[in-house]
Structure formats: structure tokens, C-alpha cells
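Q: Could you fold this chain for me?
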Amino acid sequence: MNPICIVDDQPQICSTVSGILADEGYKTVAFQDAESFWQSLDAQEPSLVLLDIWLPGVDGLELLKRLHNRFPALPVIMMSGHAGIETAVTAIKAGAFDFMEKPLHLEALLEKVDSAITHRPSRNGATALVEKGLDDTDQKSSTPAGTVDVVVSTDPQRTIGENIVLNGVGLLSGRKTGIILSPLGVNEGIVFQTLDGQTIPGHITSLENFSQTDPGKMFSANSTTLENGRQQVRTVEHLMAAFSIYGITNVLIKVDDEIPNVDGSAKDFNDLIAKVGIVEQQAPAKVAVIRKKVVVGKEKSHEKHVYAEPFEGFEIVMRVDYPQPIGEQLYTFNPEKGSFAEDIAPARSFNTFENIEMAQRLGKVGSGYLNSHIIMHEGKVLNTELRYPDEFVRHKILDLLGDLNLLGFPIRGRIVANMTSHGYNQALVKRLYQSIQRSTD
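A: Sure. Below is the predicted structure, expressed as C-alpha cells.
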């Protein structure tokens, strides 16, 4: 997908909007004046333009008219903090797709961007549906049978040694919450149970909006949510990662809507499981063996993508390349060569102050977000000391481990990921699951 262009003379607006859209899987380019933006159009047509009305030199309304003449099908969303309804009407009549008032609200921004990109008329007048972060090949491709085989493992099924209780604060709700983990019998699986008795399998088919494979899905505070149509359980990824590493295949998790996030890592989950131990059960586990390469996204260093490929054993290779204080980081985790407890579990979630502030204003996250994240602002970490110089890429591996466990089987293969979010992780798991289903049909 071609980039979204942001044209605004306020650097803070450009950087904040760029960061938010990048988190959702969009490629963005920002400009602070009309002239530099117009010159860029000789090289590439954008997929969408977010255009401020008040610009130095050529103003936004004049630029909108020029854009409409040059690219009649290009959607343009106008922005302004000082325009009234008359200006908004003028912009729409001049060909703008939509209009937004400043300060921009995250939910409204993402909804308008999604609508402009995924439902805008194509050049031939039809409706073009374009998934964020995917090209046409990705949208139409399916994972054929035989790409993944499920075979009997030499490892047994496992459950936990005894009940585990953990209390903490919810990432999204900001209120006190807790979980009780209990052993389950053979072939019962990973099962979440809400306080009213609703059960939700810890499986890809329980994923919120499972029917929509969307790597660049809408902002969900960067967490994984499972639901059964009546109830939901949020922020399951770190707990699922710990289950994965310990080979726990059967366990009941009693929870009130949200898994406690504690410090934003999986350290507490790991330590408690290690304390009570695991029980090997009298039945073999199964493993998903990757036979052919499966890719989500474009395999380019500047594009988000993730793929699974054949490999004897299991390994994750993760790369990130974000603005400072992160930069480029690369890390390979192989549980047979490294330690989850020491190398991955303590790595914490991270986000920018601007993203968190906006999400809190919208009620998307509670106070738990501030206490369980590495918070960054203007190229620096604000609230803590890093546990590792490359804690950011390690946490991305933690999230990926948790999302991969939604497949329902441990994986025999190598997973290579580049700047992935939960949406990309889950899209890969869905592809693998579809291949397994086709093989069993």
C-alpha cells in the first residue's frame, strides 16, 4: 500500500499522527508545507492525505483543489483547529473525503482513515477493499493444505502442579483484578472462565473479530482479546507465552474480564508456574510442523511482515527499527539455547507518552497502562530504567510467543518477524490454522 501523507505545519501533530498510524500498520510520510508535499507527488501517489487547512504559503483548501484535479480518486481528510462548519462544508464540496477538528481524537482518526482507505471508490468506480499493511497478493492468498502438519509429539501433555492465584491491575481497566489458575485433565486445553461461568477457549478461533484477518487492525491498546460472543477476556498474551514455554496444554484460568498486567512483562506468570511446577500427563501432545513457508506482509526491511518456515526445532528471529530511544534491534530466541525466564519474560511493554495520553482521554486504557509500560517521549525513556539495552525487541518476542500459542499446538519451525504488532502475529496464526483445517477436511 502506498503511504499516507500527513501535511501539517505543526511538527508535534505530524509526529503524533505518524506514530499512531505506524502502530496500526500504516506507512506514513509527513510534510510541514504544501510545496515539499507537492514535489513528492512526482515520485509516488499517496493512498490517503491528511491535510491541515492552515498552511504557510499555499493553504489547505487550495492544495485540496489541486490534488482533486491531479488525482480525482485520492481521498483527502481535512484537519483544522480553527475552522467552523462553513469551512468544513466548503472542504467537502471541494472534494475532501472527510473533515476533522483539532485536537484530533484517536478513535475518530482511525475510523476515518480506515474508512477512507478500505471503502473508497476505485478508479473504475467499484469499491476497493484494501487491508492495511497487506498488498493484493496477501488479500487473495490462502494457505493450502500441507503447509502445516499436525503430528504426535514425543512430549506429553502437561498441566500445572496446583492452583495459582495472582492479583494485579488491569492494563485497560486500571482497576484491581486477578486470576486463579487450576489444573485440567488430558485433552481439555487452555480454557478461560469468567466469573459468571462463561468459558472461552484460548484459541485463535476465539480471537476478537476472528473472521477478519487484518494485520493493521484498529487500536486495541496493543493487546490480545478473546471472546465468545457474550463475554471477553483481555490482555492474554503474556500468560499465553508462559504456557507456551512450559508446554502447558491443559489449564483453567478463572478471570474477571482482564488478565492482571502486573509490570507489563511475563515475569510473575513465569515465576509462579516455576514455583508450583508442571505435571506430565498420560497422553502425548501434538506439534504443528511447518512444511512450507507462510508469509504475512511484504518481506522488506522497512515493511512490517512475519513468516513461518521449516526448521528443526523452534526459533524466533525478531527485528525492530523504531525512532529513538529504540533504534534498530535484532534478537534471536531459541528456548533450547536461551532462557525464557532470564532473557524474555522480564521484558516489558512499551509505548509513547503521546499514544498513552490520547488513549486515556478516549477511555481506551486505565491507569494500569502508566504503571506497566516503558514510556517514551522525545527520544528518551521517562519512567524507568531498562532491564536490557534491547528490552524492546525482547518484548516483541514475548508478545509473539503468546499469540503463536493461540494455534493450539507448539510449533516446529522458525518464525521471522519484522516490527510486527499483534495484528500481524494473529494473521500468521490464522493462516497456519487454516492450513491445518484444510488438511483435516
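A (continued): The chain has two domains: 4-130, 148-440.
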